[in-house]
Amino acid sequence: MYLTIGLALLVCLIALVFTIMVGLGKDTSEYSQKKSWSMVSWIYIILLPLAFLGLGLLYYFITR
């Protein structure tokens, strides 16, 4: 149970940090779709596989 709560808190903290980073880096005067994609693409490359790995480990420890 504590592992589930800890993982949920970790995901929320990561989302909070990402939201703050995006909010601080917002520049409406020179909006570029390419620049926007390069800032967000690391989520799909790094965080998405880590999220699936974390969910897999969570499932493993719960069903063990």
Terminal residue distance: 13 Å
Helix proportion? over 70%
The unreliable regions are: none
Element string (H = helix, E = strand): HH
How much β-strand is present in the residues?
under 5%
What does the overall shape look like?
Answer: elongated
Write down the Rg.
Answer: 16 Å
How confident is the prediction overall: mean pLDDT?
78
Total DSSP E strands: 0
Characteristic key phrases:
64 residues, mainly alpha, elongated, Cardiolipin synthase N-terminal domain-containing protein, transmembrane, transmembrane helix
Please, could you describe this protein's structure?
The protein is mostly helical. The chain has helices at 2-24, 33-63. The chain is built from 2 helices and no strands. The mean pLDDT is 78.
Reconstruct the topology from this structure.
Blueprint: H1 2-24, H2 33-63
Transmembrane segments: 41-62
Keywords: Membrane, Transmembrane, Transmembrane helix
Protein name: Cardiolipin synthase N-terminal domain-containing protein
Quick structural summary:
The chain is mainly alpha-helical and 64 residues long. The chain is built from two helices and no strands. It comes from Exiguobacterium alkaliphilum.
